[in-house]
Amino acid sequence: MEYGWYPIMQLNNKTNKLVAPLARLACSICCFNVGIVKADWVAGVTTDVDTHGIGGVVEYHAKEFGSYFGWSANFAGAARLDDDGDGWIGLGVAGKYELGERFIIEASFMPGAYKTGETDLGGQLHFRSLIGVGYKLSETTTLSFSIDHLSNGSTQSENPGSDAFTLRFIYSLGNN
After folding, report:
1. Per the structure, how many domains does the chain have?
2. Residue 4 lies in a domain
3. Assigned domain for 150 exists
4. For residue 162, what is the enclosing H or E element?
5. Does the residue 2 lie in any domain?
6. Host domain of residue 125
7. How far apart are CA 12 and CA 53, in angstroms?
8. Measured between alpha carbons, how far is 124 from 24 in angstroms, rounded to an integer?
9. Running along the chain, 176 residues long, what does each successive block of 10 average in pLDDT?
């Protein structure tokens, strides 16, 4: 097995042209801007609204780079894989708004690469938008519920899109 080959991401050359720059951007953000000192790690169980498929989501939200109208803003990366072989990985921005001491609203927007399993969403470039509400269980843990929409943004003639509900567990480093 050669270095850098992962069975789950068997991508053709056209896809590699999209994924490689995204991977380089992720490494640059992590190495030069993020650090691991203050970050949120997210793991979730998701279900597709249309196909009722079950899947998993993992996310990394880097340290805050700004605050705008009460929203904290940060760079983020996410990946989603479901039981019928569909996968998505992306990078973008995420935000969180605190409602008092315990409740939060979260949102994100991430362009990324889509791998078709049984559900063809039209093309490989897809954008994920997410909104969720959460409850802080402690200073370092939050439980949230979100809905996200995955779409190619009409960059292809076919654009059925996909909606998913996700139960998310968020673990925050360096926030206590």
Report:
1. 1
2. no
3. yes
4. strand 162-173
5. no
6. 11-173
7. 26
8. 18
9. 43 58 59 62 94 94 93 96 94 96 97 92 95 97 97 91 96 76
